[in-house]
Automatic annotation (TrEMBL):
Pfam family for this entry, one: DUF4279
Organism for this UniProt entry: Chitinophaga caeni
UniProt-recorded name of the protein: DUF4279 domain-containing protein
Lineage: Bacteria, Pseudomonadati, Bacteroidota, Chitinophagia, Chitinophagales
Length: 154
């Protein structure tokens, strides 16, 4: 078996699986991202600073731009969709830091972000208990849920 064949098999296997991504995204123009990490006692999986350069791909080539805010993100991804992952993330990451998120909300915008990539409609669901929904609301976080379906697999 050639190396390319092995990669194709892995890609084909994963292309028929569901994936879920859970994240806390924090933006601020006045709060240093190191302060966010210290307050939450979590290291970000991605961050950038106000003034950092980034590149946009456009029809006419590449465009260099500068971020106008600081950004801090903590993300976990799973190659299956089990509603337990969402409940565990809320309990482990948010509930244990509820007061810290409330404090952060005074200086920053907070988004609880859920992205689901599904291959079957029957797996495409998210459910928040009243308690979980109230917890997210009480922290001041916005809730953003995006669902995507692979039409060639349905």
């Amino acid at each position: 078996m050639h190396q390319g064949d092995k990669q194709n098999i892995i890609l084909k296997t994963y292309s028929f699986m569901s994936k879920i991504s859970l994240a806390i995204k924090i933006t601020s123009s006045s709060l240093a991202m190191e302060e966010v990490s210290a307050l939450l006692n979590i290291q970000p999986t991605y961050s950038h600073r106000k003034g950092d350069l980034y590149t946009l791909n456009t029809q006419n080539g590449h465009l260099r731009k500068m971020w106008n805010h600081d950004f801090w993100e903590y993300r976990e991804e799973y190659i299956d969709h089990d509603i337990y992952h969402t409940k565990d993330f809320i309990s482990r990451i948010i509930r244990t830091r509820e007061d810290r998120f409330k404090e952060l909300k005074k200086y920053a915008n907070i988004v609880f972000f859920v992205t689901g990539y599904f291959v079957k409609y029957d797996k495409a669901r998210f459910q928040f208990s009243r308690d979980e929904f109230n917890l997210l609301t009480n922290t001041g976080a916005e809730i953003d849920v995006d669902l995507y379906f692979r039409s060639d697999s349905i």
